[in-house]
Amino acid sequence: MGASSTATRPRGVAREENERLILEAAEAVFAELGFKGATTGAIAARAALPKANVHYYFPSKDDLYRAVMARVLDRWLAAASSFDDSDDPADALTRYIAAKMELSRTMPLGSRIFASEIMRGAPAIADHLETTLAAWVADRGAIVRRWIAEGKLAPVDPKVLFMMIWATTQHYADFARQIEVLNGGRPLSDDEFAEATRQVARTILRGVLL
Amino acid sequence: MGASSTATRPRGVAREENERLILEAAEAVFAELGFKGATTGAIAARAALPKANVHYYFPSKDDLYRAVMARVLDRWLAAASSFDDSDDPADALTRYIAAKMELSRTMPLGSRIFASEIMRGAPAIADHLETTLAAWVADRGAIVRRWIAEGKLAPVDPKVLFMMIWATTQHYADFARQIEVLNGGRPLSDDEFAEATRQVARTILRGVLL
DNA sequence: TATGGGCCTGACCGTTTGGTCAACATTGGC
DNA sequence: GCCAATGTTGACCAAACGGTCAGGCCCATA
């Protein structure tokens, strides 16, 4: 199984480059049109590649979709770890909310794909929800309950708290269009977004902190 | 233009019945598969009607989709009026949150269609957002600002507050599948949902009330 | 420069889709 | 019992779809 078993090797350059190109194009198209609405032709066009080439790297549309979802879930897992950077509830929640808001700001497409996936019944990520996500919630839920027992937090179902954080932060990605309209037709500027982040964090903290 | 200008009239009975049947079927199919994923054939099958009959009442898929969206927006506007039932911020917010949660509980499909529509860029309801919704937010935003001036509410951008309410309450409809998984594979019972409603309202009120 | 494997793609195919249409059924008024 | 409007439907079509494939290209090695 060593690197010597195959003859040539430094060829994988084009492969990595094109896979990245296709994944980025697919992320945009899936986010805007949904799974069924997205076409491999549209993804190929956006990646400036022939359709057959897309099918060379990702045999089926479903394979490509799952690869895109995997990338999204990886990013989210990384952001979720910011919850563990502190054992102080105010710190931990502030950091986590900020990290999720930052993701909604810089990578809104993934959030939209995730939302569509859940609304379809989560056929492609059911196992991820049941294993990884459930475990994360169980672990952090225990921390939240400890904070409550220590008198640091108002008694609140950890699931309700996490759901509020997810809902609100992801809303800034999923409903960006609605927010833009209510902001006078202009997307939130960096400053406006930073201010929204601060207010969201402050409101949630006031809501659960003792 | 009187009712006498056309000859016969009491015939519209089948029309109303079938239109309702089709709209309900369409709501379910659009919610689950998205605009592009939904097929007129699937909608017809769910309504137990031939596809051609669906096209008799709604000439195009787009017409049908817009009719479904109009129904959803009507319901939401009705729920939104519960915000005006009281001039006390605690009352008004509690009622509004409860009304939105109730909608998420009893009519989650509409919420999902709305979410998909926004994520597509809101092509079918752009004008509704710019007129009706913007006006609602402007009016109620003024009320919120008055409450803040009166020292009843913490200083918060009304848009941030409304967005948190929409995001959290609609999350219970849009992400019902995720909630179900985190609830041990079982959807929230009536009691669990009522408890979630109470905790959401309490947390948001604590977050903004003085 | 011959060879072989990774890479690339135009042309093609079976299926599904939104939508049409001609023909048929039903109904209430005269 | 006839008529005309309303309602109903199987059969059909052009377009778009996901996916296939034979053949060509490029390049490191021998």
Please sum up the structure shown.
With 210 residues, chain A is mainly α. In chain A, 75% of the residues lie in helices and 0% in strands. Chain A is globular and about 60 Å long.
Notable features of this structure?
homodimer; 210 residues; mainly alpha; Arc Repressor Mutant, subunit A; Tetracycline Repressor, domain 2; 2 domains; 0% strand; globular; disordered N terminus; DNA-binding
Strand and helix layout:
The structure is a homodimer of 210-residue chains.
Chain A: H1 12-37, H2 40-46, H3 51-57, H4 61-80, H5 89-106, H6 108-119, H7 126-149, H8 158-174, H9 176-182, H10 190-208
Chain B binds a DNA duplex (30 and 30 nucleotides) through helix 1 and helix 3.
What is the annotated CATH architecture of the largest domain in chain A? Orthogonal Bundle
CATH topology of the largest domain in chain A: Tetracycline Repressor, domain 2
Task: Tell me the total number of β-strands of chain A.
Answer: 0
How far apart are the first and last residues' alpha carbons of chain A, in Å?
Answer: 58 Å
Largest interface: A-B, 55 and 55 residues
Largest sheet of chain A: none
In percent, how much strand structure appears in the residues of chain A? Answer: under 5%
Please, what is the CATH homologous superfamily of the largest domain in chain A?
Tetracycline Repressor, domain 2
CATH class of the largest domain in chain A: Mainly Alpha
Q: What's the helix-strand series of chain A?
A: HHHHHHHHHH
Q: Helical stretch count of chain A?
A: 10
What oligomeric state do these chains adopt? homodimer
- Rg of chain A to the nearest angstrom? 20 Å
Count up the domains of chain A. 2
**Poorly predicted tracts of residues of chain A:** 1-10
Q: Rough shape of chain A?
A: globular
Mean pLDDT of chain A: 93
**Proportion of residues in helical segments of chain A:** over 70%
Going by helix content, strand content and strand pairing, the class of chain A is: mainly alpha
